[in-house]
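Recall the central idea of this unit: under ordinary conditions, the amino acid sequence of a chain determines the structure it adopts. In this exercise we apply that idea directly, starting from the sequence alone.
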Amino acid sequence: MANDHPPTLKWGDENDHVVGLQQKLAAAGFALALAANGDYDTSTAAAVADFQASRGLSVDGICGPHTWAALQEAAWLLGDRNLYLSQPMLRGDDVAELQLRLGALGFDAGRVDGIFGGDTAGAVQEFQLNSGLVADAVCDTDTTAALKRMSARVTPATVAAVRERAKLQRAPRRLTERHIMIAATSTMSGVAGELATGLRRLGATVTEIYDVPEPDQVSKANHLAVDAYLGLIPSEAEECRVAYFATEGFVSPGGQRLANILGQRLPAALGTDNINVRGMRLPVLRHTRMTAVQCLIGSPGLIQARLSPLARTIEGSLALWATKPA
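Accordingly, the structure predicted from this sequence is:
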């Protein structure tokens, strides 16, 4: 997932990179009247925040690596380039549209994540075979034209979520045969450790990782083929949020189910009125291939004060999710 991007930009910066950012924002349909003057002013920060919200990213008005990557992907439209399996994998809005159109026609291209992987290549080849095209798994001009003709009147809903839901429903309905990964910062180690102990007591296999970069978290979770990924991170503010993967044409059924359970149970454990439960396209949720949620849980002081109730609540939420995972 590593990419080379310009440096992180924020309010008050003034340089050529800001000019490039402003041009990309305008090209993506944000702040069309924004002057590309190289000044990261209030209007630029607002445009970045609007773009982040539209892409399911954390909204802070700062253009960091995730926002740069999303802007780059937003520049591609289906038909702009040939799409094929490569290393590194091609990413972009054109890939997401391809996946959405294929899925709506019944060809399983996997999650609508905008990443051209093996599932997408297989779906392209299957579509080509069914359409009398050269079945080379390359989405070229001819394949794109045929796909647009056939999917013009199809409802944008894919088979990937249906198949993922069916897989979850076939899984064991208890924690004793589940593998859970807990990815936490050192600030959250107390909660994560107590949670892991409780889950192991219930018979689950638990992998704990601390202060590991998100790309490495994703690689490990996918390599181990865990049943559920739980990210625990503190917030500098009092914000509490539970996020699961969702984008146009695809919602992770397991992630949504677990996030909703946590959203219902965490307020009592944290002593708050409610928890913000959101479908998002955070990279760690986008790239993991299993039920995955990321919990942003208040300030370090709040976490320490509520450590045991918080751990028990998350443990109970995972146990309930296991009985009905989707």
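The longest strand covers residues 240-247.
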